[in-house]
Amino acid sequence: MSYLQGPLFVVTAIIAVVVLASIVRRLLGVRFSATRLVLAAAISWSMSAPILTAMLGPKLPDGSLADSRKPLLLVLALLVILLPSMVFLVVAEALAPSGSLPTPLEWIRGLRQRVARSRRYWRFTMILMRHGLGPYLRGRRPQANIGRSLRGALNEGGLTFIKFGQILSTRRDLLPAEVVDELSLLQHEAAFVPWPEIEAVLVAEYGAVESVFDRFDREPMAAASVAQVHSARLVSGEEVVVKVRRPGVTTVVERDLDIIRRLARTLERRTSWARSLGAVSLASGFAVALREELDFRIEARNLAAVAVTRVKGVAVPKAFTEHSSKRVLVMERFEGVPLRRALPQLAEREISSRELAERLLDYLLRQVMIDGVFHADPHPGNILLLTDGRLGMLDFGSVGRLDSSLRSSMQRLLAAVDAGDPLYLCDAVLEVMTAPEEIDEVALERDLGRFTARHLRSDSGFDVAMFTDLFRIASSYGLAVPAEVAAVFRALGTLEGTLTELARDFDIVTEARKLAGGYAAERLTPSALKHEAVTELAALVPMLRRLPRRVDRLVGALEGGKLSVNVRLFADRRDRDVVTGLVHQVLITVIAATSGLMGVLLVGRQKGPMVGKAVSLYQFLGYSFLAVASVLALRVLVVVFRRPEE
Predict the structure, then answer these.
(1) How many CA atoms does the CB half-sphere of 547 hold within 13 Å?
(2) For residue 285, which phi and psi values (nearest 5 degrees)?
(3) 3-state SS string over 139-153?
(4) Which of 488, 518, 540, 616 could be cross-linked to 608 through a Cys-Cys bond (beta carbons 3.0 to 4.6 Å apart)?
């Protein structure tokens, strides 16, 4: 039956490894990956024979162990066999915490992606070095022409890096003005994608293109970095434009986003300027926005959301959601020309440029202040002058969103700026922005007082650019500008440039004041006040119904001398869990130290009843205490070295 010994040994080894892995995980009290547990159990299995021989003696001629009559030594030996695997797991956790390394299957599956990413990472690093940004990445003093060098590097980096630079060019609250001015020059003119590649995308989405489109023009109307636009007609007869995502763009974007994330993490760890900018947070926000832009279903939902804002003379295309998907967006076609190209035609068509500017400002402010969903990039290329004289808004791949509380805070901030009151402005700034735990409010009020004196108490008026100074002051005190608020001022800054092209003497702040007064008047109409009162009353009714009973109980307890205050410490379960975990760790540490000390004392005792041929009962107990102390110490260490959960 010798031919059965090989398979029997393999089965026995597998069962032993599984059992050992389960016991080790139980003893350490934390979860490990299957790979680490198998390796740890294999170490214990491979060392079991020498440990058993050392503790129980060699095998007798009949195959049994010399001290097999002493089961206590066998139990101790089995516990000692587990120690090497536990030490391996603790050391592995210290050197490479769980989750920091990919599993073998993930490593093999992602090898090609890692090679491509590494090649791209190295190429972009060389681009940075070639543009003189190498010393800057190591945290040295920034050079004088950093803006020009950064623009050149991002422009050479391609699609994702250009878009990242365009986003950075809107953050005047974070970057110096000279850097912002350079990055604002970034443009990306994309080449047309050949028709066979576009057709392959359409076939993958629709199967037969003829089942959806009666006509589909092969020549593109325009091409951007993310998508290409074609003219078409649906089988139902509507003239539409079809936005098709460029093939392969998601692979490039994901690879570049990973590079940006790694660079941001490295820079924030090594340099103070990246920590002050919040580079990792900035990169994460950019990644979310760019991924949204790649999903045309989100743009279709954005079109439906902004359609609620109705301003006479401004139109938003309708999305045909039944024909749209993640890679293809079908929209209503607008007949018109881009606003910049239409400027010379305004006089011929008897269209007032100032009226167009007022219409655009009304549209964006109404979105920001009332509806909460606004166009994040209203530059002239995203606005059409239609044949009927209306303005057509395009490109809603990325929109800004403000909830009701943030809209109220923004309204108070703008009102404080308008009033020029430093105290009011300080309160509004602290309400809008995220403040650190400790902040010198007196010094902040003083700086805001100088800000109001410089910008708000002169006859020259003020403009959107002054908010750059306001954000600089806030940043110097550790106040973080929320991304939503930054998007508002980015949109206002972009719109200011658009309005200036329409009417050079257009005062955006003065006109905004007039419009804000109109919005306030709209909220004071009888119907609006009635709706607001009904809403507030509906929220107050349950509390008002309970109020008399609660007041009666309070007065009764006060009259009877039974009024007391009950303060519950650690009422939150998470707080209790943290404290309980710390107490457990301390207790385990104390028990481990006590067991180790007792073990050392007992091991030195030679006399007493014998458990084995050369081991006394006291020595056995000492070794047992040392083994228990080792297990408990390793249990504490693995928690210390374990990486905190995200």
Answers:
(1) 6
(2) -60, -40
(3) CCCCCCCHHHHHHHH
(4) 616
| 243, 246, 247, 253 alpha-carbon torsion, rounded to 10° | -130
Residue 409 in tokens: 């805070």
Q: Residue 97 CA to chain centroid, in angstroms? A: 22
**Contact in structure between 623 and 595 (CB atoms under 8 Å):** no
Read off the amino acid at residue 185. Answer: L
Collapsing DSSP states into helix, strand and coil, what is residue 136?
helix
The pLDDT of residue 613: 66
For helices 422-432 and 441-455, the axis angle rounded to 10 degrees is 120
Nearest one of 80, 93, 32, 329 to 201, comparing CA atoms: 329
CA 392 to chain CA mean position, Å = 33
**Could you tell me if 422 and 448 are in contact, meaning their C-beta atoms sit under 8 angstroms apart?**
yes
- Residue labelled with tokens 């090989």: 6
**What is the token pair recorded at 637?**
């260490």
Sign of the CA dihedral 621, 624, 630, 633?
negative
Inter-residue long-range contacts of 100-108, CB under 8 Å, 24+ positions, other chains counted: 100/643, 103/33, 103/35, 104/35
- Is residue 258 within 8 Å of 117, Cβ to Cβ? yes
DSSP three-state, residue 232: strand
pTM for the model: 0.60
The rounded distance, in Å, linking the Cα atoms of 624 and 74 is 11
Q: Are 164 and 151 in contact, with CB atoms under 8 Å apart?
A: no
Cα–Cα distance, 308 to 316 (Å, whole number): 10
Instruction: Please confirm, yes or no, whether 62 is among the known catalytic residues.
Output: no
**Cα–Cα distance, 15 to 48 (Å, whole number):** 14
| Signed CA dihedral, 565, 571, 572, 575: sign only | positive
Phi, psi of 385 (to 5 degrees): -95, 110
Q: How many CB atoms within 10 Å of residue 595?
A: 20
Q: What is the mean pLDDT of each run of 10 residues along the chain (646 residues)?
A: 57 73 76 77 77 64 52 72 79 71 66 70 77 65 68 76 72 67 67 87 88 90 83 91 88 82 81 71 79 86 85 88 91 86 80 86 86 81 85 82 82 78 85 80 86 67 64 78 77 77 76 71 66 73 80 81 71 77 86 86 75 71 82 82 58
Task: Point out the catalytic residue in the list 67, 173, 256, 377.
Answer: 377
